[in-house]
Amino acid sequence: MKDTQPEARRQLADVVVERIERLIVDGVLKQGQTLPSERRLTEKLGVSRTALREGLKILRARGLIETSQGKGSFVAKLSAEPAQAPMMHLLGSQPRTLYDLLEVREMMEAESARLAALRGTPADYILITRRYEEMVAANSRDTDASTHARLDHAFHLAISEASHNPVLVHTLATLNDLMLSSVFASVNNLYHREAQKRVIDRQHARLYNAVTGKLPEQARRAASQHIKSVRENFAEIEQEEQRLVRSTLRLEGWT
């Protein structure tokens, strides 16, 4: 009589793999995040500890999770850093690419805002509200530009995650470092200018209200106008700096 137990264990291990891969794709389990304990996972997935360990073994072989002695298993770094690093360096080292990045942000974030308004769940809107309130609360404190940038970025990231489009979310995540650099440039150059800061605050409020109010077209326009406005402000700042350089050179007798 054929022993069916190994086949059954493999099938259960495949269930473990499929469920955990889906959680990673959906952004429920994030890069670097520690997985729940074996006991919790067996309860949540409804499998035996043997099947769970087989599934985790497959995930480790695929490079999706790593296990550290005494710390448990956690989601591995998912991006292929060696292949991406040269391009990331080139893009990050050229100031002009900031405008290219903002064009990409406008397209992608406008669509993610529209989808977030269409597909967002009550739980998504709670998370978006938390990120928005943290960002607003920072305005009343003596907050440095780096913290402002991270709070701003977290707000936009929460909206993208509410789009429930894993490809869109992970594409934005791939650009995380460059995205954060552009947001940092935004707050560093614009937040200390009162007029521009008020505009940014109004734009964020408009975006927040449209997404959580489930108004997809308004959300799309609000996100697009926000990024477009930032890009226009950068262009004006750059022109101001160029005028300052030219006038200084004339003053010093270089022309």
UniProtKB/TrEMBL annotation:
SUPFAM superfamilies: GntR ligand-binding domain-like (SSF48008), Winged helix' DNA-binding domain (SSF46785). It comes from the Bacteria. Residues 220-247 form a coiled coil. PROSITE patterns: HTH_GNTR (PS50949). InterPro entries: GntR_C, TF_FadR/GntR_C, Tscrpt_reg_HTH_GntR, WH-like_DNA-bd_sf, WH_DNA-bd_sf. SMART domains: FCD (SM00895), HTH_GNTR (SM00345). GO terms for molecular function: DNA binding; DNA-binding transcription factor activity. Keywords: Coiled coil, DNA-binding, Transcription, Transcription regulation. Residues 10-78 form the HTH gntR-type domain. The keyword Coiled coil applies. This is DNA-binding transcriptional regulator GlcC. It comes from Caballeronia humi.
